[in-house]
Amino acid sequence: ATGNFGSQLNQGTQDAYLTKYDSAGNVVWQKLLGSAGTANGYGLALDPSGGVVVTGSSTADLVPGAVANGNEDSFVARYDGNGNQMWIKQIQTLANNRSNAVSVDASGNIYIGGSVSGYPVANPVDGQTSIPGGVIGSPVLSPDSSTLYIYNRLGSLYAIDAANGKQLWNYNVGGYGMGTMAVSSKGTIVPTGVLGAPLVAIKDDGNKATSLWHRDDLHTASTATLLSNGTGWVAVRDAGKDTLSLVEFDAATGATKRPLPLPDSLGYVTGIAVSSGGDLVATTQIGNVYQFSVR
């Protein structure tokens, strides 16, 4: 934001902002987050208590004692559900660093990722891990919160020990696609490729990753959703058409279990959610919402 939000004054050239809406689209609260320079927000995540964590970068001081000096410095800030800032941290390096991804686990621990061109000036952050080429997309936690998965800009997937920040393995998937993935409790990982990419899966074997299966006949149009029953759902482009279908697949083998056409669908699917009772909802980028019973 380059202007003021009501009584909240812009602190510099540009401030980051955070807005909460209710289900009817009404503004519940808005917060500006800025400095005397330029501040940008690049990622946010909800925490288990109903609050929100936002991350980004600033070219000036956000906290006492910071020394941004015109370079980009990463920040991470935590707000409660009413929009009150609980705390804010700024990460300093001798050159530029930018955090563009954040994730919060079930215990409220926060993980951020980004890129850096210098070393911390003092008091390095516990658990920092260097990712060659810089981070892209949002980090994804394993269901048991023990492993953090993240892409770099060179097309490799990295597994990080969530307890100590140490790298467990990296695996070149040929591109970061949409910068996210689905992860099951059994260590199956389904990367989200670019639109039309094949459906593939890899397996986390603890100290390395291996190829699990590859479906060149399916041209994906969404992030996959993996379920505890060993199956998954993904949107695919119908052969020779512009329309889409949902496909249920076996997460262990990739075999198709059943398709569900999405009538009058175009573009891509923005999300697939399946309830414990077997109700499936899928939404598209043009605003269509589809609901099925998949018991």
How far the N terminus sits from the C terminus, by CA atoms, comes to 46 Å
Mean pLDDT: 85
The tally of beta strands, per DSSP, is 23
Shape: globular
Strand content: over 45%
SSE topology string: EEEEEEEEEEEEEEEEEEEEEEE
Largest sheet: 4 strands, antiparallel
Our count of helices gives: 0
Your description of this structure?
By secondary structure, the protein is mainly β. It has strands at residues 16-21, 27-33, 39-46, 52-58, 73-79, 85-91, 97-104, 110-116, 135-141, 147-152, 156-161, 167-172, 181-183, 188-191, 199-204, 209-215, 225-226, 231-237, 244-250, 256-262, 269-274, 279-284, 289-293. The strands form seven sheets. It has a four-stranded antiparallel sheet, with no helix packed on it. It has a four-stranded antiparallel sheet with strand order 9-10-11-12, with no helix packed on it. A four-stranded antiparallel sheet has the order 13-14-15-16, with no helix packed on it. It is globular.
Topology of this structure?
Layout: E1 16-21, E2 27-33, E3 39-46, E4 52-58, E5 73-79, E6 85-91, E7 97-104, E8 110-116, E9 135-141, E10 147-152, E11 156-161, E12 167-172, E13 181-183, E14 188-191, E15 199-204, E16 209-215, E17 225-226, E18 231-237, E19 244-250, E20 256-262, E21 269-274, E22 279-284, E23 289-293
Antiparallel strand pairs: 1-2, 3-4, 4-5, 5-6, 7-8, 9-10, 10-11, 11-12, 13-14, 14-15, 15-16, 17-18, 18-19, 19-20, 21-22, 22-23
